[in-house]
Amino acid sequence: MRQSSRPRGSLPARFVVLALGAGVLTAPLQAQELYRVVRTENFRRAASATAPILAQVSPGSQVQAVPSQIEWLQVQLEGWIWSASVRSTTRDGYDLEVMEEGGENLRGTPNGAILARLSQGALLEEIDRQANWIQVRRSGWMWAASLERLGEQATRSAGAAAPPIEADSGARLDRAVLSNAAPMVRVLQGDESATLAEGTPVKILARSGEWVRVQLEGWVRESDLRPAADGVLEGVTGAEVRASPEEYEGKLLQWNVQFLAIQEADELRSEIPLGRRYMLARGPLPEAGFVYVILPPDRIAEVERLAPIAQVVIIGRLRVARSRYLGNPVVELVDLAVRQP
């Protein structure tokens, strides 16, 4: 067994320096308290909904966090990862990088309960080793509404977290019925697309903060339908793409995005051929993330004529669901149209 020379109870110096550089004083471990994750939630590199996602934390997992009055909590995530899924690195002062395509599970104990799903490219601090397992730690940020304060000061490692709650406990339903009539939107913060009646049964597919993505079955008159564009998926969110890359990569998607700039790919955009020009866009709207749109040479002039922050409708083939360093989707442009106000 090999153990890191860094004391277990101390936060890495790099994290303190980064926090001070941002004007925030990192609280010592003694000021942290134990929290329980009440719903699947993203663990991000910074306190922002657009910050890169380092992991998705499972409901029932326990984490150490610094109590705060703001909407984000500074969290320390700790657990065990399969050694073959990481590689050594010195980038940003960390020890390990998740290299497994699609990410890797973080467990409470070697081969134990899953606490979170770490993203490919996430950087980690190594604490200890046990056979083919490595104990790791990472500091980040989580949406406060998705964590429940347990009330007692943390005196043990978050790696000893309780197993995730079973689906029938009431905290993580897979199926439910509407308790009252409710509007349904196709994308978060989007316009209402339907009103579901009280008692409508739904299947829960995903969660994001206080929202859940649902699936329901029913019947409509065939005369009320029109053909969709061949093979083009509409209404798919960026969050869904990042959460299920194997389901969407290679598929055609229709997204509304906001044009920001045309850029040239460098070494940090390894998913885009070096030197290739791409559109940096915000979206898919109304989400606040970003999308990289690889431009065919014969469409560059057309995109260059776009007004700044113009909203456009694109059809593109999803090349990569999450770029390596920033976690943004990469699509290859097939068609584009300016969205009329």
* Rg, nearest Å: 22 Å
The end-to-end span amounts to 63 Å
Largest sheet strand order: 6-7-10-11-5-4-1-12
Largest sheet: 8 strands, antiparallel
Structural class: mainly beta
Kindly give the count of domains.
Answer: 3
The low-confidence parts are: 1-30, 152-172
How many strand elements? 23
Number of separate helices: 4
Defining traits:
341 residues, mainly beta, OB fold (Dihydrolipoamide Acetyltransferase, E2P), 3 domains, eight-stranded antiparallel beta sheet, five-stranded mixed beta barrel, 4 helices, 23 strands, disordered N terminus
Molecular structure report:
There is one protein chain. The termini are far apart. The protein has 4 helices and 23 strands. By secondary structure, the chain is mainly beta. The strands form 5 sheets. Strands 6-7-10-11-5-4-1-12 form an 8-stranded antiparallel beta sheet, with no helix packed on it. It has a 5-stranded mixed β-barrel with strand order 19-20-21-23-22. The longest helix has 9 residues. It is globular and about 60 Å long.
